[in-house]
Amino acid sequence: VLIAIGRDACTRNIGLETIGVKINEKNGKVPVNDEEQTNVPYVYAIGDILDGKLELTPVAIQAGRLLAQRLYGGSSRKCDYINVPTTVFTPLEYGSCGFPEEKAIEEYGKQNLEVYHSLFWPLEWTVPGRDNNTCYAKIICNKQDNNRVIGLHVLGPNAGEVTQGFAAAIKCGLTKELLDETIGIHPTCAEVFTTMDITKASGQDITQKGC
């Protein structure tokens, strides 16, 4: 049983209409520009209340910190809402950073992307004999930008830990070539990202026979 608990945007009774701040009438959320500024120049919004942004506490903290630095510290750094690592802590964890494949296609065009993927078998699953083709990893690369990794996805044990580490590399401009040049730690789940050589476009079999 999956229970999804959402958050309501309680913006309709706090007087925003009095000062002219626009909200999305469908969900009550507040549209902002890339500096968290609403349509009223002196009003800013951060966190879960933002229309079209991620509802994640670390994102709100980072956005608030950067906003304060821009307003009062002379900074120009903006919050990156794309390369955000996050994890669904289900029994088999799912982690991601960057674009989902569908969004990447919308943004860059399918012809400009290369998607590498693989199933993998965690070492700790070999003793109990668990299915060796349940865990999955995928990276989305922008062919027009030196095969830069713009999306990373992993389904497997400790996906949160794996995703957090690769998120820093993605922020630094990780490319497929750099992943290929990285020596993997054997036998780890994260190693799969250093050995990927099958693209989705090829249609080749990605099932595994060992860890």
What attributes does this structure have?
211 residues; FAD/NAD(P)-binding domain; 2 domains; disulfide bond; 5 strands; glutathione-disulfide reductase (NADPH) activity; FAD/NAD-linked_Rdtase_dimer_sf; elongated; 5 helices; alpha+beta; 5-stranded antiparallel β-sheet; Enolase-like, domain 1
Helix and strand arrangement:
Layout: H1 16-19, H2 57-72, E1 86-88, E2 94-98, H3 101-108, E3 113-120, E4 135-142, E5 148-155, H4 159-171, H5 176-181
Antiparallel strand pairs: 1-2, 2-5, 3-4, 4-5
Description:
This protein has a five-stranded antiparallel beta sheet with strand order 1-2-5-4-3. The chain folds into two domains: 16-73, FAD/NAD(P)-binding domain; 85-202, FAD/NAD-linked reductase, C-terminal dimerisation domain (Enolase-like, domain 1). With 211 residues, it is of the alpha+beta class. The two termini are 31 Å apart. The model has no long low-confidence stretch (mean pLDDT 93). It contains five helices and five strands. It has helices at residues 16-19, 57-72, 101-108, 159-171, 176-181; strands at 86-88, 94-98, 113-120, 135-142, 148-155. A hairpin with a 5-residue loop joins strand 1 (86-88) and strand 2.
